[in-house]
Specification:
alpha+beta; about 30% helix; seven-stranded mixed β-sheet
Length: about 475
């Protein structure tokens, strides 16, 4: 396939007068990787990314190690995939969090091999990564932790069903010495790059925020471009089966483990659980948050009943949404970034389900690629979702909203089709960013999803992923 410019394909259809179809290249995505001032990164973390040999090319990083260097173990929280075939690192990290009562000191991640559906050997390999990373912690920090409790959370991403080249990974971990880890932008960038598989840019963000008149910092990285439709929950929380999506968020605020888990669960439902590239959930999806309190001094940890908790939770949610949206923007072969907003729903869950259904519809996503304002497909997806209150078709509105702030284009008003200006519709859908807004007219709750289109390039990438 020609990636430098559009290709022309012959279309054979008895219903179309157009004899050809232009294959559009994906827009440049490197612009989403930005330089971040060193002062924006949270205190008390040391990290890096290196090549250890999981991937073939020596120039490609494939191992990330993150250490919390604060005197006390950091509060830790995580949301994991609800897939029945949970990967070994998911099971091991759940065990670490349970035994440590939500405390951790480190994160280790490899890319290039998912260590999923790998049986007993996979579990042994994941534990070996944990113990090797524990050994990197300074002796004065390890002495504060029981020898029976591990301080490292582990993540893996890549091809499913293959064993890790564990000797290479363990050698890569043990070769790390304090000077090779850092806390500046370059160190964070290396760590983010080592997360990548089919990603086209490292997904890294950081910000400062205030709580109670004190300044804190938050930074995070994630990866994902395909097999993206996460449905994650707290450890051991059962749920319906619904990416590989991995991410970690680090802050120097002081938050208790229970409050941190509550905030993360809320945030994930409104961020990582609200994105879809292709509707497929991974065996490895994991989002981890560490809060080491390095900027808090003697301040007590924020608890869920604390007046500052809602502000922290909302800050975490906003930041998680920013990271999650980067995954959609880097969707495999994607040419569009589309916000699906569902309003007027009886409950948040109802709105979220409808937004999810629209975002995963292959018919909707192919129409987005073709820049075809086929709103009937949006309605069909909407009407297929059972809600707590049945949909009244004569209350539903559908609107295309341009990202540039210009006039929106209603295509359905209270169940009645509008006389659509096809030229205007084409203008909106030809943009890289736009919004599909559906108002159900049934209540006051709303939810958003972020999705992309289906392109020929997506098929090419996934047709030879293991090659």
């Amino acid at each position: 396939m020609n990636r430098c410019g559009p290709s022309v394909w012959r279309r054979f259809s008895s219903t179309s007068s157009s004899p050809t179809f232009v294959v559009k290249p994906a827009p440049p995505k490197a612009r989403h990787h930005v330089q971040i001032p060193d002062t924006s990164f949270p205190h008390g973390y040391s990290l890096t990314g290196v090549h250890c040999g999981v991937k073939k090319k020596p120039s490609v990083l494939d191992l990330t190690v993150i250490l919390s260097t604060s005197p006390q173990p950091a509060s830790a929280a995580a949301c994991f995939t609800r897939n029945a075939f949970k990967a070994a690192p998911v099971l091991v990290s759940q065990d670490v969090l349970e035994k440590s009562a939500g405390r951790a000191r480190a994160i280790v991640t490899n890319s290039g091999c998912a260590n999923a559906v790998t049986g007993k050997q996979g579990l042994e390999d994941a534990w070996a990564m944990v113990k090797a990373t524990d050994a990197l912690l300074p002796k004065q920090l390890k002495s504060q932790t029981s020898e029976d409790i591990n301080g490292t959370l582990v993540m893996s991403t890549g091809v499913i069903g293959q064993n890790l080249p564990i000797s290479k990974i363990l050698s890569g971990i043990s070769a790390l010495v304090p000077p090779s880890l850092g806390s500046d932008f370059a160190a964070w960038e290396r760590a983010a790059k080592a997360f990548m598989t089919t990603d086209t840019f490292p997904k890294l963000r950081a910000r400062t925020f205030s709580l109670g008149g004190q300044t804190f910092r938050m930074a995070g990285m994630d990866k994902g471009a395909g097999m993206i439709h996460p449905d994650m929950g707290p450890p051991a929380n059962p749920g319906q089966l619904h990416a590989t999506l991995l991410g970690c968020i680090l802050t120097d605020a002081a938050v208790s483990p229970q409050a941190l888990q509550s905030a993360l669960t809320y945030a994930v439902d409104r961020s990582f659980n609200s994105i879809s590239v292709d509707g497929d959930m991974s065996t490895n999806d994991t989002i981890v948050v560490l809060a080491n309190g390095a900027a808090a001094g003697e301040t007590k940890e924020i608890e869920e009943h604390d007046p500052l908790f809602p502000a922290f939770r909302d800050e975490l949610t906003s930041f998680a949404a920013e990271l999650a949206q980067l995954v959609v923007r880097d969707g495999e072969g994607a040419t569009k970034f589309v916000t699906v907003s569902v309003e007027g729903a009886p409950t948040f869950t109802d709105a979220h389900r409808v937004a999810s259904r629209i975002s995963t519809s292959a018919l909707v996503k192919t129409a987005l690629y073709g820049e075809d304002a086929n709103w009937g497909r949006i309605l069909a997806a909407t009407g297929s979702v059972p809600l707590s209150t049945p949909i009244d078709p004569y209350r539903v509105n559908v609107t295309f909203v341009p990202a540039d702030g210009s006039t929106p284009l209603p295509v359905l008003v209270r169940g009645e089709p509008e006389l659509v200006d096809e030229v205007r519709a084409k203008e909106i859908l030809s943009e890289e960013d736009f919004e599909i807004k559906v108002d159900l007219g049934l209540g006051s709750e709303s939810a958003q999803y972020w999705t992309c289109d289906f392109s020929y390039e997506y098929v090419r990438i996934n047709g030879d992923y293991r090659s």
